[in-house]
Amino acid sequence: MNNNAILTYETVSLDENERSLLILDQTKLPASINILHLNDIHDIWNAIYTLQVRGAPAIGIAAAFGLYLEALKIDTDDYPSFLEKFKKAKDYLNSARPTAVNLSWALKRLEKIAALNNDKTVPEIKELLRLEAVAIKSEDTETCRLIGEHGLTLIHNGDGILTHCNAGQLATSKYGTALAPIHLGRERGINFRVYCDETRPLLQGARLSAFELLADGVDTTLICDNMASQVMKNGWVNAVFVGCDRASANGDCCNKIGTSGLAILARHYGIPFYVFCPASTIDMNIKTGAEIVIEQRQPEEVTEIWYSKRMAPDGVNVYNPAFDVTEHELITGIVTEFGIARPPYTESLRKIMLP
Ligand code: MRU
User: Fold this and answer.
1) pLDDT in tens, 225-253
2) How many whole angstroms from 121 Cα to the centroid of ligand 1?
3) Residue with the nearest Cα to atom 6 of ligand 1?
4) What is the pTM of this model?
5) Is 110 in the pocket of ligand 1 (CB under 6 A)?
6) pLDDT over threshold 80, residue 1
7) Which of 25, 36, 93, 96 is the most buried (most CB within 10 A)?
8) Where do the domains of the chain lie, and which CATH numbers do they carry?
């Protein structure tokens, strides 16, 4: 298999004949391209929890298809018992990861369909659920393309961009969010130099961003997370582009652990720091980032996962938060499909969320 063709694979899709969710297993990249065929709700929960599918928009799409597939299995034509079982499945999938709002956002979209169509038969509701899940995915492609268009207005041919984690095509249905301007630029013959933080502990930058950017022919340099300051000091970075898992109404943005440190460095060196996300990632129900639940993950991700032998002493305490919150004061702009929100975010995000 030619790994350079990674961008021709779908991150998440629905096989309607087989009634399965197809996931490009991101835990195996870049060594091998492996497509998982899942139809059991526990396997789908596990795929989200173990990051076989990851990145806020991709998790939402996977959960929507997963909930639809589970709805198909609910063997009753009685609406109240259908709805009860459906909601139980929704709550279960929603518990797979707490931080990225797109998971609950996508599941709520399906729940709304099930709840509002109580005048329809259960088979008709199941068909509406399929249509909604398919729409969530196709809307994501258009959303990411628009985010990329807005992002392209911020940079010029030859610029150096520093990015963290993977907010690329592998985290969405196409293009990505923070990496969308880079991929769109390639389509138009505009070239950027991209510095990928390796992104400890799960190495989404090294394994995924570097992989998909190289596959697209982008001038890509991998750095360890603790090298970002030096790369900025060298004058190689014109802008920092990162994704987002949940933004609050005041513009605080939660993203992969390490993002807030980059924002502090960028401020020190006078480099613009942009967060990229679909409007669905903006959670107007929370006032500040302090309200965001930060996922804590297994200590083995830090002590063992990438080492042939465990490298840390047994019994050591490990602190392994998956995300951190960048305060809005450090963010130059939040790039959405509806345009670029600028400070004060309480006003600009409210305007963006109005439609
Ligand atoms: O733990 P992950 O790999 O799911 O974390 C992903 C990120 O932090 C991304 O930057 C974010 O979800 C945006 S993806 C477009």
Assistant:
1) 999 999 999 999 999 999 999 999 999 99
2) 38
3) 55
4) 0.97
5) no
6) no
7) 93
8) 3-141 (1.20.120.420), 145-353 (3.40.50.10470)
CA 53 to chain centre: 9
Structure confidence at residue 351 (pLDDT): 96
Span from the CA of 74 to the centroid of ligand 1 (angstroms): 32
Reported as type and span, the H/E element at residue 87 is: helix 79-94
DSSP string of 314-334? TT-----BSEEEE-GGG-SEE
Pocket of ligand 1 contains residue 177 by CB under 6 Å: yes
Over range 257-271, report the average pLDDT.
98
Backbone φ and ψ of 296, nearest 5°: -105, 135
Query: From CA 118, how far away is CA 316, in angstroms rounded?
Result: 54
Output the pLDDT for position 2.
67
pLDDT band of residue 3 (cuts 50, 70, 90) is confident
Q: Which residue in 159, 245, 252, 324 is the catalytic one? A: 245
The dihedral formed by the CA atoms of 145, 161, 256 and 199, expressed in degrees to the nearest 10: 130
Contact by Cβ (8 Å): 40, 23: no
348 token code pair: 């600009």
**How many whole angstroms from 219 Cα to the centroid of ligand 1?**
22
CA distance 160 to 87: 46
Mutate to test the pocket of ligand 1, among 24, 104, 202, 204 (most ligand atoms within 8 A of CB): 204
Tell how far the Cα of 75 is from the centroid of ligand 1, in angstroms: 35
- The pLDDT tens digits of the residues spanning 182-225 come to 999 999 999 999 999 999 999 999 999 999 999 999 999 999 99
322 pocket-lining for ligand 1 (C-beta < 6 Å): yes
Which tokens in the block code for residue 169? Answer: 């095509």
